[in-house]
Fold this protein.
Amino acid sequence: MSRTRQAARLAAHLSEVTGVRVELVYDNGPRWNMNWPDGPTRDQMRAHLQEALAGHHFPDMRDRQLDLTRGWTYRAWAARAIASRREGTLAPAVAEGAAWRRTHLPDRQPFGGANLTPEDHALLRHVDELIEATPYPDRASAPEDDPLIEELLAAGSRELPHGGRTVSEFAMARVLLNADRAPSAEQPTQLRPLPSPAPAQPQISMDAEQTEQAQAATVRVLRALPSAREVTTTGELAAILARLPEDTPLFLTDHVVSHPGPLDDPVHAVVAHLTPGAEPADPDDPASEYRMMPALGLTTIRVDSTHNAGTEFERDGVEPNDPLTRAEDRLTSRGDLEGGIRDAAHVVDLVARLLDEGARFIDSDHEAHATVTVETSRLRHAAERLRKAAPDAQKASEQ
């Protein structure tokens, strides 16, 4: 019998023993990936696996390196969260975890618009730890948990633009953290969906006089800098600054922009340009109302050496050159799923390459070397699957 058929039969045997669907997928060399949702813990599954391999049915799988990965479902997340709340361990864990995060990570900023509070992080980590330690975490720990699990799943779901619904552990976490709407012994069980908190936006308020001042300032800036201009020396920049009002705000972009597509002889150039800016009416109070004023922007642009950087900057299509920044821009702002997913796949490939380089410093006989190597291979496979899925994802989003 071939090893592939033995692997399929081993997966079927473990599925029957554990009551969950077990998959065995070939990775590379002697490595195989075993994964299953919820069900037994990794230690329990490893015991089932060793027992199966000790018999005579799967001899060709004994010398294989099997990497065990246990996934989880949203029902498992809801079940563990509800059980912990009923047992009185949820609130203390969240309070302790949030306090630790505020002490040790006070300046950690959200990424990609994920507006998570320390309480969010603490709750998500606590539930993850419960799922990891609990066999069959999707099962209710007590009969009275069942209706609350269903309510939490419903409250943490939302409708998709083209039909159907999706669930998010982040949404369920927000529901649980809202003490007024979460169930308790003193009130009926009510878990309701909460609106996603909108990011705080500067409140812009300008009276007629301030509007006239902004318009006049814009005219002065345009006289000094009628169009975007490449700046190659400090003298050129000094000449522009000398023609601008002294109170003109200065804006520096933190990433390079570029036109999509290959360049014959790429160079990086700095472009000075007019850009709108918002400044607080009270510089000492960032929470005060803002007023709009023209600002001088300095942006690095990647262009062909034969092209005028100022002209290229003003053309349509300029976007971040860094693939991670560009992926965030395409996926969150433009709805360019195909381009954004391809950029994200490129970033995953870069991470895999870094891990591959780092693995050279680990003894090849050490367990950590095998772990890093396996995860690196997974990342490469994930990047390839993302690239293949990108066109279909774009089509699905446009239906």
